[in-house]
Amino acid sequence: MTNSSAGYGALTKLFHWLIVILFAAQYLSGNIMVAIGFNAEFAGIGTNTYYNWHKSLGLVALAVAIFRIINRRVGQLPPWAPTLSGFEKKFIHRVEQVFYTAMLVMPISGWLYVMYGHYGVNLFGLWEMPRPLPRDDTLRDVFKWVHIVAGWVLLAAMVGHIGLVLRHQLFKKDGLLKRML
Ligand code: HEM
Ligand code: HEM
């Protein structure tokens, strides 16, 4: 279940692909809801529903990220793939730091943004969550920009990460992808 010298454990693989799916949904819903604006519809789904699902899935992603961080500290990280160059190892190390930071910063900044804006979170359209923070327009704007800028930084890291995996998988044909399957 956990990482070992033989490779990544089942939990790491499960969390990895769960976060890939959740983040894909977040980028899609985030950009759709901002692009269509209020009281609009896209693919038969209204703006409010996009917002509810974006916020709700974002909080689910936060829970997954916390479990993933705990899981990363359990067991032993597998050795580097032998086909990685020294530069690639440094690059992967930095990208992973950005990923683990972003997995926390994205949902927390999103939540703080909607709390200080007093917009609230209607969890999956079923439950209006408490709003423990006072309304503050300056902090609302600060966290909105943290959310947007961190989203772009994370996107750049993802392009680098996927590019490196594809380069190894398709051109070096060393089966790097198999390590996470
Ligand atoms: C967990 C990962 C998350 C990711 C990857 C993510 C990503 C994004 C992206 C890409 C956008 C579009 C930004 C733009 O170009 O304007 C966005 C917007 C937004 N997100 Fe998230 N988000 C996450 C979690 C959350 C959470 C947990 C909340 C709130 C509880 C939230 C609230 C919002 C709101 C309100 C907007 C609209 C921003 C605006 O008005 O421009 N997000 N998000
Ligand atoms: C289609 C997209 C993706 C593919 C094909 C992919 C593939 C991989 C592969 C093959 C590895 C193992 C590399 C090694 O041998 O050490 C890996 C590791 C990793 N990936 Fe991805 N990945 C994708 C998207 C993402 C995204 C979106 C994130 C984070 C937001 C992410 C975070 C990580 C992290 C942190 C590791 C290191 C292992 C761990 O601590 O979980 N990946 N990925």
From TrEMBL:
Query: Which cell locations does it reside in?
Result: Cell membrane
> Cytochrome b561 bacterial/Ni-hydrogenase domain location, by residue?
8-181
Keyword line: Cell membrane, Electron transport, Heme, Iron, Membrane, Metal-binding, Transmembrane, Transmembrane helix, Transport
Molecular function as annotated in GO: electron transfer activity; heme binding; metal ion binding
Does the record's keyword annotation contain Zinc? no
Which topology term describes how it sits in the membrane? Multi-pass membrane protein
Q: Which residues cross the membrane?
A: 14-38, 50-70, 98-119, 145-166
What family does this belong to?
Belongs to the cytochrome b561 family.
| The name this protein goes by in its record | Cytochrome b
Origin species, per record, is: Gymnodinialimonas phycosphaerae
